[in-house]
Hints:
- This protein has 14 helices and eleven strands.
- The chain has two domains: 34-112, Ribosomal Protein S8, Chain: A, domain 1 (2-Layer Sandwich); 120-378, TIM Barrel (Alpha-Beta Barrel).
- The strands form two sheets. The chain has an eight-stranded parallel barrel, surrounded by six helices.
- It is an alpha/beta fold.
- It has helices spanning 9-19, 23-31, 45-57, 84-93, 101-112, 140-153, 174-190, 206-214, 229-237, 263-280, 300-308, 328-333, 342-354, 365-378; strands at residues 35-44, 61-63, 75-83, 120-126, 157-161, 198-202, 219-222, 241-245, 288-291, 319-322, 359-362.
Amino acid sequence: MKLYRLGTVTDKKAALKALGVESGGIEIMVKKMELLYFYIKELKTPAANILKQDALSIGAELAVPGGVILCEQPTYDCILIGTRKHMEILSRKELAQPFGLKTVAQELQKFLSPKIFPLQIMGIINANEDSFYAGSRFVAEDAIVRIEKMIEEGADIIDIGAVSSRPGSETVSESVELERIKPICDLIIRNRLDERVTFSVDSYTPSVVEYALRSGFTIVNDITGADNREIVKLVLEHDAKLCIMHMQGSPKTMQKNPHYEDVTAEVSTFFEERIEKCEAMGMKREDIILDVGIGFGKTLEHNLTLIRNMEHFTHFGCEVLVGASRKSMIDKIIPAPTEARLPGTLAIHLKAVEEGANIVRCHDVAEHRQAMAVWEVLRQ
């Protein structure tokens, strides 16, 4: 007798097929072979008791504090545990229940059927001299040479910015930012590079964003998270996409003792509010990209928590970007200068993609293209 553990969904389906299970049965059984966990915050006590009983009745479980049965508090945090099949049943069953369980059911349905987006690699070009990684700094003709190289290496998107947002960095004037990026935009148009790759502008300055959009750019990467309505208006006018990033504070102050009660929940609430704002102005979710802002007002533990819980943010129905390329969180795990952080970068990005991110913002396109190609084969 031999016993071995089945790994991916592909492995499970292959094993069931090898047993001779019919195709319809395979799909049913695979759902029973994936265990899911959902943390529910501030669930009304009557709802917790109902959900507990409903979960137990189908073989799932709801972990609750001891006082729930006695209704000692009006709300409780809970953990729902079960297979994908259990969650599908509960997502339908709780739609008819009171005390907020309809909302729980609707949220479960979002998590169970997230929109799938293609995996894309976003290369980084900085048109300034003070970005934290010297290897990303290029101006005018040099930038175009680097862009050509990134296209050859397999970049899907190239993100160009002219102002550093590293911790402690100072803001620059609008005219200086435009002066830095304008020559690159002009050369992109002249060389018709916008026909070969998607361009993203890393800016929250309206005049800079407008110039880039008129130069063939189709994504605005806004580290202020759509704080300025003018940026959203420009995105709509040019039929572009908007990347909303979360940041606590500003680049100058963000790493001065960042604090969260629950970083995943608070970043999630931020996205809910900004998505609602953008939709109210006319944007569609498929044109919104979410970036949790690794290193932007976060400690190492905050960053790690967000990467481990990246899948949570897929339920919004938007694309999810991760950008940890060569950042200092790697140095905090294992000391390494910026130039030596590629291995740590790949480890973080592969984990983030495994958890649901589909856009990887990086300095090293070729290395990421190879790593992602191998990862995609392994996950099948």
